[in-house]
Design brief:
With 448 residues, the chain is an alpha+beta fold. The protein is built from 16 helices and ten strands. It is extended and about 90 Å long.
Length: 448
């Protein structure tokens, strides 16, 4: 259960209800400091109590829970409180509070009050407790706060409602799903308007592939619901249902709900893609940066050549300063040969020799790893990243990463029975080799 959204949704309504302001006075709302210890302890105990009694109602035939059972449930959550503290929370939850509100019936307004606000009820003779009607409503509201990650099930409820001719609940399910997606759209827009990425934006970016899959599956279910509304007998079914409890619902209203869900889903998908693109352009990325410690260890195990070391020094510039402040003279003479133009040497290519060397290298690679790759494919799908982790690109003292990638892009050299499928993965992988850091979309070979 998620109690915080429920608490956040009613906190300001209670502030307005308890307001001491006189009509016509200044409209400013004073800075507020809530009473309490600000440790969340009593709220934690209250939610445990509600969940314990609710779970007992679902799992047993007895709706009452004893005080000892409640205390054991609180202590099982490692709450630092005593029995008197739990009893205090129980007394608060079972105490009614009178709420005043204006009831409207067409043009008639009437001031009414409601005292059915106690969340639990205690028996008269025994220390046993059960949920009140308001308590069950609170549990239902806490359970109803759902993530958009499960909207596939909400779309499926729409489809089942059409199949069962329950068009009133179809309208309800469609409106709830539309409101849920629109809340996510507004949240993504808020992230797009902010200058930097925060935890909420990073969560969308990290799970973008999952959200895309959920959106596609939900669109597929919505399309099935739309197809069900085009059934030959749909008009007669709606007419028969309208005769019993139509409540003014028409066929066009049902169609409009489906079109609206399709529109908000497309808008959500478009904004999510924009958020991912913005994150990639802003200098921050969901891809983990390479580890300099791992890079340093690789240089110790495999010392770089003089050309590579010279290139690295040119990128870094001066390594120490001669004065308290940086100066253009700090790098003078540090790297020999800097600024000295070298006479270009014309490159001559021998196509026959290059092709022969490539052919021999490919043969050596196939002879070395063809059997291992074939055995792995016989057991199941094989990813390029897995092959790199297994070191299936090191032939002797040479790294033939190009030949390994060539097998994944054109696996005809393996000469396997059956059909090989090549799949491009959505997630990005990084690997560090002696040639540098590889950043790539993973490939998958699958033997069918």
């Amino acid at each position: 259960m998620n109690w915080i959204p429920l608490l956040a949704s009613v906190a300001r309504l209670l502030d307005v209800h308890d307001s001491q302001r006189t009509l016509g006075t200044a409209p400013e709302w004073a800075n507020e400091v809530r009473n309490g210890h600000r440790d969340g302890l009593y709220l934690d105990i209250a939610t445990i109590v509600m969940e314990t009694i609710s779970e007992a109602e679902r799992s047993t035939s007895d709706e009452y829970v004893s005080f000892d059972e409640i205390v054991r449930a609180v202590f099982a959550r490692d709450v630092h409180a005593g029995q008197e503290d739990v009893l205090y929370v129980l007394n608060v939850l079972r105490s009614p509070s009178e709420l005043w509100y204006v009831a409207r019936n067409h043009d008639v307004q009437a001031l009414q009050s409601d005292k059915n606000t106690a969340l639990i009820v205690k028996t008269t003779n025994a220390a046993e407790y059960k949920l009140s009607q308001a308590g069950r409503a609170a549990v239902a509201l806490a359970n109803s706060y759902q993530s958009i990650a499960y909207m596939e099930g909400d779309a499926l409820k729409m489809l089942r409602a059409i199949e069962e001719n329950d068009f009133l609940h179809f309208i309800q399910f469609a409106d709830e799903l539309t409101a849920q997606i629109r809340r996510e759209i507004l949240t993504i827009r808020e992230h797009l308007e902010k200058t930097g990425l925060n935890n909420g934006a990073n969560e969308y970016i990290r799970d973008s592939a999952r959200y895309r899959r959920i959106t596609e599956n939900t669109l597929s279910t919505v399309s099935s619901a739309e197809h069900a509304l085009h059934a030959p007998d749909i008009a007669s079914r709606i007419e028969l249902w309208q005769g019993s409890d139509g409540r003014g619902i028409t066929y066009e209203m049902l169609r409009a709900r489906v079109r609206r869900i399709r529109q908000v889903l497309e808008q959500f998908s478009r904004l999510l893609l924009e958020l991912v693109r913005t994150s990639l352009q802003s200098g921050k990325s969901s891809i983990s940066p390479p580890s300099f410690i791992e890079l340093g260890i690789s240089f110790v195990l495999n010392p770089p050549t003089e050309d590579k070391l010279d290139w690295l020094l040119r990128q870094w510039g001066a390594l120490e300063t001669r004065t308290p402040f940086f100066s253009a003279l700090d790098g003078e003479g540090t790297i020999t040969g800097s600024g000295v133009s070298r006479k270009p040497i014309g490159e001559v290519f021998n196509d026959e020799k290059i092709q022969a060397d490539e052919f021999v290298g490919r043969l050596r690679f196939v002879d070395c790893y063809a059997s291992q790759i074939t055995e792995a494919l016989s057991a199941g799908p094989l990813n390029l990243s897995t092959a790199i982790d297994n070191g299936w690109f090191i032939v002797g003292e040479a790294e033939q990463i190009a030949d390994l990638i060539g097998v994944f892009t054109s696996p005809a050299a393996l000469k396997l029975p059956g059909v090989l499928e090549i799949r491009l993965q959505e997630q990005t992988s990084t690997r560090i080799t002696n040639a540098g850091t590889l950043l790539f979309n993973d490939l998958e070979l699958r033997l069918t």
